[in-house]
Amino acid sequence: MLTADTMRKVRMLSARGASLREVARRYNLSRNTVRKIVRRNAAELQQLLTRALYNS
Question: CATH number of the domain that 15 lies in?
């Protein structure tokens, strides 16, 4: 099962420039799972930025 801590670690490692394959190997996840975690994080960040721009 995927925990919040593992997802946080995946995001951090990806942000530091690690490849999806490298992250997947390190945490024993499929590349598709890593891809979904990273994309979801990017989408959430985009929403926050958009809200901040429209609310200011």
Answer: 1.10.10
Q: What is the pLDDT of residues 15-48, one digit of tens each?
A: 999 999 999 999 999 999 999 999 988 888 778 7
10 Å Cβ neighbour count for 7?
19
| Domain count within the chain | 1
Contact 29, 10 (CB under 8 A): yes
Cα–Cα distance, 11 to 4 (Å, whole number): 11
Domain that holds residue 16: 4-55
Specify the pTM.
Answer: 0.75
**Beta carbons of 50 and 23 less than 8 angstroms apart:** no
Q: Do the Cβ atoms of 14 and 1 come closer than 8 Å?
A: no
